[in-house]
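BUG: 3D viewer hangs when loading the predicted structure for this chain

Environment: internal workstation, default settings.
Expected: structure renders.
Actual: progress bar stalls at 90%.

Input used:
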Amino acid sequence: MMLSGYYFCNEPNIHIPTPEKMSFEIFKQQFGDLTELVIQEASTGNRCVVVPELGGIVRQLSLRKGITLFSLLKTPPTPDSLVADTKSASELLFPFASRIPDGKYKFLGKEYQLAKNETGNLNAIHGLVRKQQFTLGEQIIEADHASIKLSYDLNELEGYPFAVKFSVLYTLHADGRFVLSYEAVNDGAEPAPIMFGWHPYFLLGNEQVDAWKINIPSGEIVDFDNNQIPVGKKPFLVDRPTKLYQKAFDNCFIVDSATNSAVTELISENQDITLRIKQETGEGKFNYLVVYTPPARDCVAIEPLTANVNAFNSGEGLNVLAQGKSIDGAITLSLI
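Structure tokens produced before the viewer hung:
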């Protein structure tokens, strides 16, 4: 195995093609006390930067369109602020996403109590793998893509007494696509409730949100109570795409899923750039979507989810894994 001209992570399970075909590299770098993994494509500069010891998050994602390399994710700018972040920037949300009121849920006739970790201690929010140390698995470098696999095992955690192996695969393709794929495997003896989501805040250059349009692939919005817990559904009737100027979103949508995927578009006409967030849909896949515009209005959170908010209680979209069974799904980002 020849590695001439490239520095690869000194870890097992690396597969690479012959050197003359390599345009990708995978390497380590320091971000303060944090150790990051970088997938980079030489000819375009496309890259993603992953932090295994902070819940496996993608801290940076840069994709090129034409002569411009766009940095697409807003995350805290320093190591300390990243560690201290409470806004879940780019975090993986598993085995549940969004809120569970009072941290209480009932599953198969039994009641469970999760830690109430939302600001104000009213609810459990965004799962149990945030800020956790993930394990680096296989690294793959091929002529047309490179990927890193990270994993975290959940074993008899507070409020979630199930054994589930969770993994995420980050892949950068030569055609400019970035793909986040996840898999969950029930490694225990009892059925386990499963929900997954991703929580990125997206940027398009230095523009503010009010300069953009968004195309949300949904005709139905979840109706929330004052605690942001679903109480029903109602039609979502807006232009497609719709201007974000003076509009504020903090909503969950049931996505249109007539095919096996749905695409949200974030559009900057001034820069002639569109970010496409494609989520797999269909049975067990990403059939829900949260859109949130933070008060600073310098980014938009677009969060594909496999189930509705509070699905651990309502069952809406919830995947229930029997012993030895698995579930997976993918989210794909690209620029046009």
